[in-house]
Amino acid sequence: MTQVLPTRSRPNRNYAAVALFLAVYVGVLVFVFAPKDMFAVQSPTALLQTD
User: Fold this and answer.
1) Rounded to whole angstroms, how far apart are CA atoms 48 and 40?
2) What are the residue ranges spanned by the domains of the chain?
3) b/e for 7-44, b at 16 or more Cβ within 10 A?
4) Non-local CB neighbours of 39 within 8 Å, separated by 6+ positions
5) pLDDT tens, position by position, 3-44
6) Three-state SS string across the chain, please?
7) How far apart are CA 9 and CA 43, in angstroms?
8) 50 burial class (0-12, 13-18, 19+ CB within 10 angstroms)?
9) pLDDT at 15 (0 to 100)
């Protein structure tokens, strides 16, 4: 007797996991390769000083 394997459909949860992985991966690449000035954090005292 030949057995016919049922076709497995991917659940939406699998697509969500792949999308989340890609979003995190791209975010890490942007953070690593972005210019350092983009993520420069000023100290709060510098923000409070006014001319």
Assistant:
1) 17
2) 11-47
3) eeeeeeeeeeeeeeeeeeeeeeeeeeeeeeeeeeeeee
4) 31
5) 776 666 667 789 999 999 999 999 999 988 877 776 666 655
6) CCCCCCCCCCCHHHHHHHHHHHHHHHHHHHHHHCCHHHHCCCCHHHHHCCC
7) 52
8) exposed
9) 93
- Reading the block at residue 30, the tokens are 């942007």
Distance CA 7, CA 16 (A): 21
Amino acid 31 reads: F
Q: What is the length of the chain? A: 51
